[in-house]
Amino acid sequence: MADTKVDQMSVNVVKEPSMMTGAIPGKDWMDTTVTFKPGNYCYPAKKSIVEYLDKGLPGLFGVPREWTVESDDWQLPENWVEIILQGMRERLDKFRSFKVFMDICVRCGACADKCHFFLGTGDPKNMPVLRAELLRSVYRGNFTKAGKILGSIAGGREMTFEVLKEWFMYFYQCTECRRCSVFCPYGIDTAEITMMARELLHLVGVGTNWILEPAANSNRTGNHLGLQPHTFKQNAEFLLDDIEEVTGVMLKNLTFNRKGAEVLFVIPSADVFAEPGIFTFMGYLLIFEHIGLDYTISTYSSEGGNFGSFTNNELMKKLNGKMYAEAERLGVKWILGGECGHMWRVVHQYMETMNGPPDNLEVPKSPITGTVFENAAAAKMVHMSEFTADLIKHNKLKIDKSRNDHRVVTFHDSCNPARGMGLLEEPRYIHQHVCNNFYEMPENTIREQTFCCGSGTGLNTGEIMDLRMRGGLPRANAVKYVEEKHGVNMLSCICAIDRATLLALMEYWNPNVGVCGISELVGNALIMDGEKERDQDLRFEELLGAGQAEGETGNNEEGE
Amino acid sequence: MNIETLLAPKKKAIIKKWIDQVLDSYGAPDFFKKQKDRFANPIGGTISDGLQELYAILLEERELGEAARSLEQIIKIRAVQDFTPSQAVSFVYLLKSIVRDELAKEKNLEEIQASLSEFEARIDKVALMAFDFYMNCRERLHQIRVNEVLSGRHTLTDGTKCVSAMLKSRKIESADKSKINRLT
């Protein structure tokens, strides 16, 4: 935001680059420096948090200290350049993909206009190719012969404080959503370039509190907020009362830390304490009760979300390992995962080489339908949408989809489940069976080409609300289209960060559109044994034609 | 003769110039100018659709209230981008100089002086509307930040909140659920 001091404002209007003065900067990207100001950066990590993380994983989070982003002195260690270059060297040796991604980009530009941050800001450094170039130029300048000799002529440059600032600015304007990777003819995973850059930044103690504190909490107590077991349990059970009020049924199957359960259910913890995730949680519980699933929730691994994956691979591994350690301790057969985002990217793409294979678990088999989830043979973990779609396919759910008639729904393919694990059809299949009004957004904004919410990878913090609105513009723009064309009033998704951040995004861009998880819609539609006449949904909102629609049930009877 | 008649043959050129100059305020404007798919290019699409609509309303002496929608769509975008408030709304004034440039070579400028002044006064009114929309957007943004804190969504990652206090307040709030639901 602009400075509100009058003298400064007058200077801004007359001298700053603007359309009125015609002074648009025309420098080469390498010569354009970044300026941090309130609203365009995340707050740095607290000293105490870094101290805590440093105890478990020494050296990976830099020297604990207080520092300010807008200052020109970040209190970096004297040898910080050396630390970065050594860190880069080690990672080039350890991760072949990193080395390949540094070398093979031909700068064709296919990715350039695919990033939501570029589309929302018009800043060339938000073109994925150029963002990667911020790191690649240092790689060239220090690790390739041509770059060492020819410097900037060969696209190489030295690691300087200005470059470090650029990294902090732009690798925190990437949500690792991987939309750009879909268009890369070489299959470069640009998200992994951001991951490497963030690892290097953390090595010299440049990290954000919004990421490191939840990661520390998850490590200590099992979830982002640091909820202790009794509180987590209390919160979850609190929602049982709400379910009873709406349905007239008190659920009996919810248990915690129960050894010998067949299935361990892992959720994003926001689902037990933040709206609208709590309604999704109610949906999960209703489904499990409906089918009599033998499941338990662990209060020690009460978080599927892995904020470690936004810092470095070691912390990612550690947090991911907790789920599997709990599964082993409780003696479950397999893990069922809730509607979470990056949990699935970690499970699907990194778990096996980090913590796997989890030999103590079995290949997941639905006890209700007998379906064996061969696709989950390695991870031993099934996604809630896969599980629910399979139940519907086998007619195991009694559904009255007219109970969602007050919702006109569109589906946001959450980036990680969509692009990270290819979960494209199951969510749509569920929608078709639990609601009558479902409309897709335009083709180039869904499925593999889905646009990010703009706040993933730990960017869902309030201090960068402007930035989040810019990053989410392409998604909101597509929602606006279906809102105007079809009267869409609900945006469903399968990611907890989406559920939290799309809400803010919609409040700004499309205030008439709400946000929900798919399981909430399923929960609304489920006909529970012994239920009372349902006239409210899980949000205590009136159903359409409540009291008049008796007998209009069983809309899923078309058979499969 | 009035300004509408005089500018009719120049309509395309004026609008193009206006759109181009506004898009030039972005760091990499070429893409925003070329890509015609409005879903692949929300900024370019919104600005070019919006400015065309605004131009028609301004010139055809339609009710200025009709400008609200297009104006709001553009301001909404610029209000959250890296612009000062003056930069965010200045695009409205650009039309004045573009039109003046186009008219510079006209011989019978005297004849349309009155309608030109009126046209420029209309632009000024739209610019004032733009200020209102801008403030509206900023206020909404701050309200969203407040809502995010109040709704407990920030607790997704903020460890500073007292959980038992949160539970207590939840119990009180549950008595008035419909109010909360309206907020979300």
Protein chain pair with the most extensive contact, residues per chain: A-B, 72 and 65 residues
What shape does the CA trace of chain A take?
Answer: globular
- Distance, first to last CA of chain A: 55 Å
Summarize the amount of helix of chain B as a percent range.
Answer: over 70%
Strand-and-helix sequence of chain B, N→C?
HHHHHHHHHH
The number of helical segments of chain A is: 22
Q: Give me the count of strands of chain B.
A: 0
Gyration radius of chain B, in Å = 22 Å
Strand content of chain B: under 5%
Overall radius of gyration of chain A: 24 Å
| Spans where pLDDT lies below 50 across 5 or more residues of chain B | 154-164
- Secondary-structure content class of chain B: mainly alpha
Arithmetic mean pLDDT of chain B? 85
Explain what you see.
The complex is a heterodimer of chains A (560) and B (184). Chain A is mainly alpha-helical and 560 residues long. Chain A folds into three domains: 25-207, no CATH class; 213-393, no CATH class; 401-525, 3-Layer(aba) Sandwich (Rossmann fold), CATH 3.40.50. Helices cover 44% and strands 4% of the residues of chain A. Chain A contains 22 helices and seven strands. Chain A has helices spanning 6-15, 47-56, 80-94, 96-104, 116-121, 128-143, 145-150, 161-170, 179-183, 190-203, 209-221, 229-247, 277-291, 313-330, 342-354, 384-393, 415-421, 425-434, 465-471, 473-486, 496-509, 518-525; strands at residues 263-266, 295-297, 334-337, 381-383, 409-411, 490-493, 514-517. In chain A, helix 21 links the parallel strand 6 (490-493) and strand 7. In chain A, helix 3 (80-94) runs antiparallel to helix 10 and helix 4 (96-104) crosses helix 10 (190-203). Chain B has two domains: 3-150; 158-184, no CATH class. In chain B, helix 2 (11-23) packs across helix 4 (42-59) and helix 7 runs antiparallel to helix 8. Chain B is an all-alpha fold and 184 residues long. Chain B contains ten helices and no strands. Chains A and B meet through helix 1, helix 5, helix 11, helix 12 and helix 19 of A and helix 3, helix 4, helix 6, helix 7 and helix 8 of B.
